[in-house]
Every structure is written in C-alpha cells, then in structure tokens.
Write a structure and sequence with these properties.
Blueprint lengths: L1 H9 L7 H15 L1 H24 L4 H21 L18 H24 L6 H25 L4 H28 L1
Amino acid sequence: MKNLEKLMKHAKKIKYTHKDRMACIKKSLSQIGSTEYLIICMEEIAELTDVIMGNTLNKVDYIHTAEEIVDVKFATDILKVIYKIKEKDLKKVKKSDSKGKDKIIARSIQTLAQSQQGISKAVRWKDRESEKTIKEKIIGIINDLNTAMADLESIYKIKNKDIEAIEKLKTWRLKKRIAMYDAKKKKK
C-alpha cells in the first residue's frame, strides 16, 4: 500500500486516457482470452467485497478501498469490451436512493455478489443462451456495478482525483504487462 501511495503522487506524470485504457484492455484480451478475463473480473469483485467487509470490522483503508473500486471499474470496462457494449447502452450513473451508510454498504455487497453470480452464469451459459440475452444481462450487471461504485466512493469519501490517479497507474501497469507478454512471445 505504501508503494501505491508513492506511485499515486507520480500519477500526474502518467498520460493515459480512458481511450488508452480501453485499447490496453483490448490488446490484453487478445493475449489471454475472454474466459480468463471474466474470471479476473469475478476475482476483482470478490476482492472489493472483502475490503468492504474489512472496513466494517476495522478502520477504513482508504487507499485499498479506492484501489479495489478502480479494479471493479476496470472489470466493467473489460465486460464492455468482451460483450461489445457501448456507453449509450448503459444508464447514467446515479447514487442509490437508500438512506444510511449501513444500508448502502449492504446493498453494495449484495450487488457485488449478484454481479459475480451473473458473470459466472454468462461464462457457463455462453452456449445455452443467445449472445443478445447474455449481453442484456451484462448491461444490467455493469449498470448495477456502476451505481454501487458511485455509492461506495461517496460513503468512503474517495476523491475523484485519487480514482483517476489509480486508473492511470493501473493502465500503465497493464501496458507494461502487455509489453512483457509480447517480448516473451517473440523469444519463443
């Protein structure tokens, strides 16, 4: 975590946009495949759930919470790429109507669990359901995750500039992994 805090200070120097992140995701997806990436999405959702539970039992870990929220945001971007979902297909993000921190956290945890199940079903049922049906379900999952992320950012008072810094760092790391994968592939 200390390393991430230091890196966040340097994130201002990193010049990556959302478009760059999506290009990196597409390139990485071509390298490791969609099934592997869907499993990664489920893992990221589980990790955020774990952090939220830890926050309810212990002191809130701001950096770790922000990092895991960004990981789930990346997961929604991955889902958009895999299922060819456009921004116009999604609802505008708005915070939930629930009042009270505990209710919002409980609803977020429920959303994360349901999202994991939905992604798992999409993987298992890809041969049983139409591509359109699966895409519609994934759109619902992304919408729910986006609302949960907005709620969690609000509850934990995560600053937008910190989210953006972590997104830049994660994009930078992904680009490095892509380069390493390409270099390894060339050696073979």
